[in-house]
Every structure is written in structure tokens, then in C-alpha cells.
Amino acid sequence: MKITRLSLWHVPLTSHAAYYMAEGKTCDTVETVVLALDTDSGLTGWGEVCPIPHYLPAYARGVAPALADLAPVLLGADPVGPEALMARADAYLPGHVYAKSALDIALWDLCGQVAGLPLYALLGGRRQADMPLYHSITCVAPEEMARIAREAQAEGITQFQVKLGASGDWQTDVERLTRVRETVGPGPLVYGDWNCGATSLAATRVGRAVAHLDIMLEQPCATLADCARVRAATGLPMKLDELVHDTASLLEAHRLGIMDALALKLSKFGGLSPLRRARDLCLHLGPQMCIECTWGSDIVTAAALHLGAATDPARLLNVCDLSGYVAPRLAPEAPTRRNGRIAPPEGPGLGIIPDRAALGAPDLTLE
């Protein structure tokens, strides 16, 4: 089997409600990049990557040039055995891991289809029927965030990510965390996420003010050293996200003792191949894991769910139904949340088929 055509689309994804984070980061309408790899066997592998503006060193419009540059490596190549072809791609074009994330997902999709197996079977075997979801609460007025938490809890959600820092004052962040914790009651997991947007002083003041409430902090500061200061000063457990993106950063965070939990995201690491290796390292290092991606629709959601389903349930903190936050959906039959949980697709490969007709004419075709 050989890759005969690469097609790429830019698709605007609109959040059901404007999504606010610290330092002016906003998800309202964000462009996702959809990739299709057609083969001479008639099979098609699908990939997706959706960088959030101002979030990580990734740019949606940078994906097409990177993949066009890789065309001599990809076209005519055998896609079965994703890591072998990705190694050739890395040697030909170092870096640009976010662009390669969509490519790696598409290769795994093809590999699973050839094997006639869902990806979770190839990523370690299914360890659980379905997985817990968290619900991410946009950083708005505290009473509105409490309302969002109440509605999500009524749908079965037991883990709540409370976005912080959008208003620029630490006192309102204290109120946000307090109101959400009071609303959901004792037991559910509540954690406050600054997305690197707090100083160590501000995050410490917030953490000390809510330390009696059973709260976890997520990625308060822009450096691991500052995050370590916050954890030491507050005594609160910490989840990392933006600052853990490869083996070196995982090992450094572990050395500093600040990795109680972490977000493993496809686009940060470069797809399923490196994310599976990161997952396996974390099984050794000890943190609980959220397996997801930065943003996106059904394709990245399905890829993350397969890896999550193949992970030890005791070590999987949660997953995210990214496609549930945005419109349009790319694959009509893709999984949706049910009673606070979600299951991976059952078909071979990713187990979903995006609606190619709805995507329209591709923005890039290489063959």
C-alpha cells in the first residue's frame, strides 16, 4: 500500500460560548486543520490539529507548508508502521511537531484500518469501557462559572477545570474557585487553571486563600521554577500542561516534584506515536494523566480517546470531549459524552469517518 494523495482543509470551529483564559487568550472561532491521506488501496487516513492562538508555538496556517515540504517523503510511501515513516519525516524536516501531529494521527488511522482493529487495540489494548470527562469552565463572572458547573454536574461530570486570570486580580480568582467548589460540593475534583498567566505571587495568594477547600492548581506560571515555588508555598497539588511537552520537560518537572497530574496533548508532543511514549514514561514517573489535545473536533477527540482507553484506569485522571465544545462536528457518528463519561469509537483505526462532502474542496492537494 502506498500514499497517493494528501488533502488538507482549514475549518473554522466556533465555540458554543466564547471561551476566556488568562492574558487575553480567547477561543471563540478557531481554525482547525483537517488532513486526509488517500492510498492506492482505497483506504483514507484522517488527521487533525487545532492550535489555539497565543497558546503554544503552533500556527494553523503553518501546517500546510510543513506538510507540502514533506511531500517527497510521504507520497509513494507505505503508511503501515507510523513510527518508521515519522522517523523519516523528522529527519527530513526537524521540528514542527504540531504539523506532524495531524500526519501521525492519519498514519495510525490507516494502520488500524489495515489491521482491522480499533486504535486502542494497537496502543496497548483496551483497559476500560469508558473514561471520565472533565468540564472546562470559561473564565467569566464567578456566579456564571458556578452556574456552568451546576449544569455540567447535572450531566454527570465530576471533574471541573476552572479557568482563572482573565480579570487580572487574584481576589476574583479566589471567588471563582470558592463558588465552584461550594456549588459542586465535597468529592468532585476542582482545579484552577491559569494557562501560565499568573505570577508566582498572585498564584500563591490564591492558593493560600483556597487551601482549605480541596483544590488543585494547574499551570499557574510560565516557568517550571515559578510553578515549583507556588507548590512549595501553598502545599496544594499541581497539574502541569503547557510546560511539559517532551521527555526532558517531563523529567525536569518530576525532579522538581510538581507533577501530581499533567495534560498529555497530541499537538504538544507531535501525535499518537510520541504521546504513547510520554504516556508510558508517566506510568513510571507516577502522575495521573489527562489525555487530550489543545483544541479541535472529532478527529483529535477520537485519537485521544483511543490512547486513553488503552491506559491504566488508576493513572488516567480524565479525557476531554473537545468536539463537544465546538461546531461544526466533522464526523456525525463520533462519540459524545454520556453521564459524565465517554467511550472510544469501535470501528477500525480511529473508528470515525469525517463527512468529506461537508468539508468541500480541499485548500491543498498533493499527489
UniProtKB/TrEMBL annotation:
Domain Mandelate racemase/muconate lactonizing enzyme C-terminal positions: 142-237
GO MF terms held by the record: isomerase activity; magnesium ion binding
Family, per entry: Belongs to the mandelate racemase/muconate lactonizing enzyme family.
SUPFAM superfamilies: Enolase C-terminal domain-like, Enolase N-terminal domain-like
Keywords, comma-separated and alphabetical: Isomerase, Magnesium, Metal-binding
Native organism: Maliponia aquimaris
Protein name from the UniProt record: 4-hydroxyproline betaine 2-epimerase
Enzyme class: isomerase
Record Pfam families: MR_MLE_C (PF13378), MR_MLE_N (PF02746)
Cofactors, names only: Mg(2+)
Gene, per the UniProt record: hpbD_1
GO biological process, any: amino acid catabolic process
E.C. designation(s): 5.1.1.-
Keyword Metal-binding attributed: yes
InterPro entries: DgoD-like (IPR034593), Enolase-like_C_sf (IPR036849), Enolase-like_N (IPR029017), Enolase_C-like (IPR029065), Mandel_Rmase/mucon_lact_enz_CS (IPR018110), Mandelate_racemase_C (IPR013342), Mandelate_racemase_N_dom (IPR013341)
